[in-house]
Amino acid sequence: MKPLTQLRSRTAVLAHTNIDTDRIIPARFLTTTERTGLGEHAFEDWRYRADGSDNPDFELNRPEARGCQILVAGRNFGCGSSREHAPWALLDFGIQAVLSSEIADIFRSNALKNGLLAVVVSEAEHRWLLDHPGVELRIDVAGGFIELPDDGRFAFELDGFARHCLLHGVDQLGFIRQHAAEIEAFEQRVEQAA
Amino acid sequence: MTTPRTLFEKVWDAHQVVAEKPDAPAVLYIDLHLVHEVTSPQAFDELRRRELPVRRPDRTLATLDHSTPTLPAAADGTRPYTTAQAEAQVHTLENNCAAFGIELHGWDSDARGIVHVIGPELGATQPGMTIVCGDSHTSTHGAFGALAFGIGTTEVGHVLATQCLLQRKPKTFAIHVDHALPAGVSAKDLVLHVIATIGVGGGTGHVLEFRGPAIEALSMEERMTVCNMAIEAGARAGMIAPDDTTFAWLKGRPRAPQGDAWDRAVAHWKTLKSDDGARYDREVRIDASTVRPTVTYGTHPGMAAAMDAPVPAAANAQESRALDYMQVTAGKAMAGTPVDVVFVGSCTNSRLPDLRAAAEVLRGRSVAEGVRMLVVPGSESVRRAAEAEGLHEVFTAAGAEWRVPGCSMCIAMNGDLAQPGQLVVSTSNRNFEGRQGKGARTVLASPATAAASAVAGCIADPRSFFQTSEAAA
Asked: Signal peptide position in this chain (chain A) (predicted)?
């Protein structure tokens, strides 16, 4: 994972609540054995019309949404399945951060492990962001705040360890493996007790 | 005096290899890792890239279920995969299990089936364990008093390599279910009612503990149905304290402890319940006696109501959109809505008692003209047991299709799917837009409701069918 210290982009808004992982990447694209190439199918059933052309009504197809790396989404984003294909698809599509008032647990965990910033903001801030699509934001990972164009700030909570991993590109598997001796001791203790 | 602890806290505490700290999550030991073809290939690739073995192949169990066709193999042994990529994915898991020494219940196994059906069947799922799988319905195994939850593919790699996960301790949420379910009302109706009560995101950040007399009265299969859908309320895990029902169900299963080890295990398992005075972060009380046959009317599992109750008015633009997608009218009950497809199956409702409930309604009756019904057993064991009872003949005589085990139309990635606009009454767990095929409209229901709806050709209350068959007998 590459270190991520800050992100500066305009926002695109998908105000729908409960955007589930089937919406983000439909199950028929999960037969891949790769992590890459899922971006073209992100939001597939919203994004394209039956003839395969772009659906002009889909928010992320609008000209002003093109190139936006920050997605402001309705409450309970990423609910549903555990498929890590959802953050893979978003990253491949060009989304680097998701802001919402509530983000589903497994999606959030998967996102952060891939360097996709999944950030929960307060209800009031969420409302403001939903009402201001296209606003230019700077997300400061170390400082834990979102900077607005008028220099206002929205502070956000991010687990200290998740923040550390993002800032330094920590290899979490490597981190667990540093505890190999403790894991070994735990197994011996449990297997003796059984 | 020790502080009273919840069931969840007891299991959590017993598996912390390294305790949680403010600046670092716990290193949590995983007793059982279930693996299937969809969420594992990239994890095995990561192990290869790092030249790491699987740390505990003996704690890892794999099966084929998601991408697999449910039509039988041709005479020459070829199987009707929906795409070459689906077939390649299955072969990838076969190759990975062979290369890393993992027990795979593949096509040649008489125990193959949906991962959350076979874990318990084999007795691999046991009280007090930590169980993970790259699948959100891993919550199913919480029915045995295990802490069981879904993980992503990166974490699948972590567990393969280290048998551990980095986890923050979730909060606890007690769902007290008082009184008893009325006759003809199932565990599926109950869990849909619970999700409608607490909301589709109501359990986010929490582990649910289902408790109370209505839960204690449930069979293991019913408890699995309830815990299976904890994730549909946003909770990664749902748990039920193990009791004599649990022990009787597990005894003698292939991977269950035997002899003296069984007695020692049961003595330990009996301690796995929340202590009197244990505190939960949240609690809610549900009166089981008020639950009626329940179905969903919208596009997430929290949009559920008794089928004879008027569909609530849309509270916002999203709900309004959901009702439009479902072609449902607020103020009108779901009962009587015409049905195109009926699906009985999935990790929620594909076990033997589920098939019996559907068969009881279908026996001596026919699937309505124009309705397609698929019955997909959860495992080869379920299939054999159902066939031994002649249930498959009840289904086929009624005009339903009897298939080979797999996830099938629940996730609709194996070619079993509904056409745009079709209404599916489904015993599965998710009614998201397009979940069962692009444009398909899903109504979640119990197996008995699904079967009654197949016969009636519209969403129908199964209780009238039970009464008719009793009167006829």
From this structure: none
- Crossing angle (nearest 10°) for helices B352-362 and B380-388: 40
CA neighbor of B46 nearest in space, from B209, B123, B200, B160: B160
Number of domains chain B is built from: 3
Q: Which among B17, B92, B201 has the least Cβ separation from residue A75? A: B201
Say which amino acid occupies B209.
E
Residues of B in contact with A26 (CB under 8 A): 434, 438
Please give the structure tokens belonging to residue B54: 């699987």
B236 chain-A contacts, CB cut-off 8 A: 105-106
Q: How many residues does chain A have?
A: 194
Cβ distance B152 to A84 less than 8 Å, yes or no, reads yes
ipTM: 0.96
- Strands, DSSP E only, in B235-368? 237-239, 282-287, 294-296, 304-306, 341-344
Are B181 and B199 part of one and the same domain? yes
The residue among B133, B154, B236, B348 with the most chain A CBs within 10 A of its CB, best to mutate, is B154
- Tens-digit pLDDT profile for residues B22-73: 999 999 999 999 999 999 999 999 999 999 999 999 999 999 999 999 999 9
Tokens of B49: 């890239």
Q: How many CB atoms lie within 10 A of CB B227?
A: 30
A47 contacts chain B (CB < 8 A)? no
User: A144 in contact with B at a CB cutoff of 8 Å?
Assistant: no
Rounded to whole angstroms, the Cα distance separating B461 from B450 reads 9
Supply the DSSP symbol for B379.
B
Contact B298, B290 (CB under 8 A): no
**Terminal Cα distance for chain B, rounded:** 59
Residue type for B398, please? A
Choose the final residue of a domain: B140, B167, B194: B167
Q: Are residues B139 and B175 in the same domain?
A: no
User: What is the structure's pLDDT at B2?
Assistant: 83
- In 3-state terms, what secondary structure has residue B208? strand
Question: B46 contacts in A (CB within 8 Å)?
Answer: 173
DSSP state of B43: H
pLDDT tens digits for range B95-151: 999 999 999 999 999 999 999 999 999 999 999 999 999 999 999 999 999 999 999
The answer to whether B177 and B214 are in contact (CB under 8 A) is: yes
Is there a domain that residue B261 lies in?
no
What is the residue range of B74's domain?
7-167
Q: Is the pLDDT of residue B469 over 60?
A: no
Specify the pLDDT at position B473: 40
At the fourth CATH level, the homologous superfamily of domain A6-193 is Aconitase, domain 4 (3.20.19.10)
Range list of β-strands (E), B169-308: 171-178, 206-211, 237-239, 282-287, 294-296, 304-306
Counting every residue written for chain B, the total comes to 473
The amino acid sitting at B418 is: A
Q: Where are the alpha helices (DSSP H) in B151-238?
A: 153-162, 187-198, 213-216, 220-228
Give the pLDDT confidence score for residue A193 in this predicted structure: 81
**Is B298 in the same domain as B160?**
no
B393 burial (CB, 10 Å; 0-12 / 13-18 / 19+) is: middle
Of B108, B137, B167, the last residue of a domain is B167
Please report, for the domain that includes residue B39, its CATH number. Answer: 3.30.499.10
Tell me the pLDDT tens digit for each residue of B425-457: 999 999 999 999 999 999 999 999 999 999 999
Tens digits of residue pLDDT in A26-83: 999 999 999 999 999 999 999 999 999 999 999 999 999 999 999 999 999 999 999 9
Domain assignment present for B384: yes
